[in-house]
Amino acid sequence: MAVDDNEGADRVTIGVCVMEKKVFCSPMEQILERLRAFGEFEIIIFGDKVILEDPIEIWPKCDCLIAFCSSGFPLQKAQAYAALRRPFLVNELEPQYLLHDRRKVYEHLEKYGIPVPSYALVNREYPYQELDHFIEQEDFVEIHGKRFLKPFVEKPANGDDHRIMIYYPNSAGGGMKELFRKVGNRSSEFHPDVRRVRREGSYIYEEFMPTGGTDVKVYTVGPGYAHAEARKSPVVDGVVMRNPDGKEVRYPVLLTPTEKQMARDVCSAFRQMVCGFDLLRCDGRSYVCDVNGWSFVKNSYKYYDDAACILRKIFLDAKAPHLSSIIPPTLPWKSNEPDQSTEGLTRQGSGIIGTFGQSEELRCVIVVIRHGDRTPKQKVKLKVTEENLLNLMLKYNGGKPRAETKLKSAVQLQDLLDATRQLVPPTRSGQESDSDAEDLEHIEKLRQVKAVLEEGGHFSGIYRKVQLKPLKWIKVPKHNGDGEEERPIEALMILKYGGVLTHAGRKQAEELGRFFRNNIYPGEGTGLLRLHSTYRHDLKIYSSDEGRVQMSAAAFAKGLLDLEGQLTPILVSLVSKDSSMLDGLEDASIEMDEAKARLHEIIISNAKTENTNGSEEFPWMVDGAGLPANASQLLPKMGVRS
Description:
- This protein is an alpha+beta fold.
- The chain has four domains: 94 residues, 3-Layer(aba) Sandwich (Rossmann fold); 206 residues, 2-Layer Sandwich (D-amino Acid Aminotransferase, Chain A, domain 1), CATH 3.30.470.20; 113 residues, no CATH class; 103 residues, no CATH class.
- It contains 15 helices and 26 strands.
- The strands form seven sheets. Strands 5-13-9-10-11-12 form a six-stranded antiparallel β-sheet, with no helix packed on it.
- α11 crosses α12.
- It is elongated, with a radius of gyration of 32 Å.
- The N and C termini lie far apart (91 Å).
């Protein structure tokens, strides 16, 4: 029975003012069962009828109150009860209003110095309200002058709306991925044709943070305890990984000291002893992006033990400090519970993580692959003297008259297309003389540039780029009349297109990833992602900035990690584009020519290759190993010239 003054009382009454759907879920039942087992608590479950229908004056009295808001829960009524009976609150009620508005959550996090992703708010008073401070272009949105380039994230301001969108840039194929609460084995869907953002409400826009395909969820029980788990991010392919019992597969991860402090700060800032939040790890830093009240870990007996022991101490310290809160040497429920000491730590077919390799330790695996089959690459070269094209070059090279410019983004290519359209006559007159032949050739090349840029109707994909190289300069007076400056009068335009990864090329890369998984990690099967919390946080996939190479890397990752769906989300989530990967090759021209000559010699020779650079122990190190004897006859049939 609850008492007003617990001095000398042997039992503490805990009221559970929570909707029945939440009370009778497995984690809550497990923790309440452990609290009962201590023999120090009387637990009263209010039930839906009492919470929804009865006046607060006849609600059960209690010393400590567990109350948290969920669908249909009357938070204001619970506040009135707490004001009337003044129980100790595990999670304070007033701050729970904040959790239903993402804007207030972010504002509160920033107030307490907790890192959040870069974001901006779009507040609408009614659906589809036009706002002067909101601008949407093909590859970005701009809010109050703050620009977010795709990929970016769009979250409803309403914290109870879980339909979160990610918009991808045209350079990666475009489209949108919709994230939602799990439905069966799906947690997201990719929509390749959706490119415009929503306008029917208020939203938060934030930069997309690549986390290596991993989501980390942190659960606190008081400010001094945090448990973290990793799962496959729904951003990758939207397929929920489940164990044989149908539970989502998650794995414990260690938090850094900084992340532990963030957990403590979140718990204190929102005055919620028990809560959960999403942690984004990106480029060596961590950010909080969502906070949920009263969240429990699922399917972890160790966590249930910890949570029950910590809550016991919290309750006793608050209402029965005369009772010892020291944890007994043997927990009262342990004799009837299965051993869970290795939960979450075993590998499929490989025992405990870390037990393999007694005398040697594999520190890393490095794989270098070439892109898959592609369509032929094509180029258009022409010298340009037109002022609008030269001005475009200066616009994107910082105004440097002797600097080369590369145009690849949708905005840059659209500028070039607009300039080219002004230079190309709408129709051919058919009355040109022979003296105009050179001009005609120039116009035809510009027409070809225009046709290539217009192909497809929008700049989707990563297979078109233009280089502008200045060739001639002159001195002209500066605009302010103070001296002279150089200005280009002629440049070389090189349009490169084609080289698209074919369907066969994607299949090659995906099968290679699957082959690599099955042969380098035998026994893992489709469970390679089980290493999410260990090696996979260090899994890095790099690609050059060539489109076919990026898509090959994404297809390889899809096969390696047994993913499903389109390549665009995989590319953005898992592949890091590094345009400097091929830098320095211009200094290796001699070695490259020697290698090409040696390959040509091997291909045209029908003689058996001599073992000059390899050995019987390392047969793959022999020049030309694996080539059939009649390679020179087979290559022409494949459309390849030796």
